[in-house]
Amino acid sequence: MASMEFPIGYHSLHLDTSMNFQMNRWFGWVGEPDMLEAMRMAAPRIATFVDWKREFLALAERASQQGRVLRAGFYWRSAEFFMRADDPERKGARARFLGAVRSVYGLELGERHAVPYADGRIRGFLPAYRLKPPRAKCTFVFCGGFDSCIEELTSAFIYLRDAGYDVIAFDGPGQGGALDEAGLLMMFAECSLVMFVMQAIVFSPWVKPDATRWLIGMTCGGCIGNATHALKPINGVRHVDVSLAAGEATDTSYPENGPSKKTR
Length: 264
What we know:
Layout: H1 17-30, H2 33-42, H3 49-65, H4 69-81, H5 90-105, E1 112-119, E2 122-131, E3 139-143, H6 154-162, E4 166-170, H7 176-180, H8 190-202, E5 213-217, H9 224-231, E6 242-243, E7 248-253, E8 260-263
Parallel strand pairs: 3-4, 3-5
Antiparallel strand pairs: 1-2, 2-4, 6-7, 7-8
Helix pairs in contact: 1-4, 3-4, 4-5, 8-9
């Protein structure tokens, strides 16, 4: 597969701030320049979520007929994004998005794992993918944010894998397959989920006991305190510190020649 390239910049595509953000979001994972023009042309016809669904389903069908598989997939994801949970077309749109992503990036169903999840009376599973290079430098454990589904970020995971990193990525309750397939609703204390998954990974056969693990997540700033509190007690965690006010993230690593502290 050719080297991954990601588009840079934020574009004015729709007058509504939220809709404009979502359009930029999908483009960021496709990066085909004429996709911007296609969405700009559709934007004046979109004022409601019903309009959004109609226009993006039409864009998806057109792109599919043109052989633009990845673009069509993200148009289906976009259409599905604002559909109601009881919309009869929602399941099909998600299935076509997943099929497009797996086709373009060669994801095998065997790379998808169902991690058993239990919290009190709640039972289900967390969909997770493992992308592993022949010799890994370290392991990244990635959880998505709020309304994401983990397949959206496949190109980023492949980029990391091809750069020599082992990647384990999962949906949490309320996200992607955890919601749509396992019926798990979003949790109030999402930090406990992070701790659950990290503990599962630390003692799992997926990762060598002495391997370095990096946890990456997308979240709103208000969750930082809870996530930090949940992560610090886990065996193997060296340091957690994020300051949105200062615009800094500090991490402490332990290479063979001794500790190294960096502020970014």
